[in-house]
Amino acid sequence: MKVLINRQWCKGCGVCVAFCRSRALSLGEDGKAVCDPALCVGCGLCELYCPDLAVECVREGDEAGEGA
């Protein structure tokens, strides 16, 4: 699973960080969410709870533009 964060939509509220059970998400220096893929367990809670729809969880190889 790969976590994609839309940097334009992310407001840095930290909701995704709070719900990340593996602590893969944090707020970067710019105050926006960043993901450490080595820690991500692919639970999808970050996508589910993001109030701004800035987080998307996709299976590897399903990223936008691939295979099209």
From TrEMBL:
User: Which InterPro entries does the UniProt entry name for this protein?
Assistant: 4Fe4S_Fe-S-bd, 4Fe4S_Fe_S_CS
- UniProt keyword annotations, A-Z: Iron, Iron-sulfur, Metal-binding
- Pfam families from the xrefs? Fer4_7
Q: What's the name of the protein?
A: 4Fe-4S binding protein
GO molecular function terms attached to this record: iron-sulfur cluster binding; metal ion binding
SUPFAM superfamilies in the record: 4Fe-4S ferredoxins
Q: Which domain of life is it from?
A: Bacteria
Q: Which organism is it from?
A: Candidatus Bilophila faecipullorum
- Give all residue intervals belonging to the 4Fe-4S ferredoxin-type domain: 1-30, 31-60
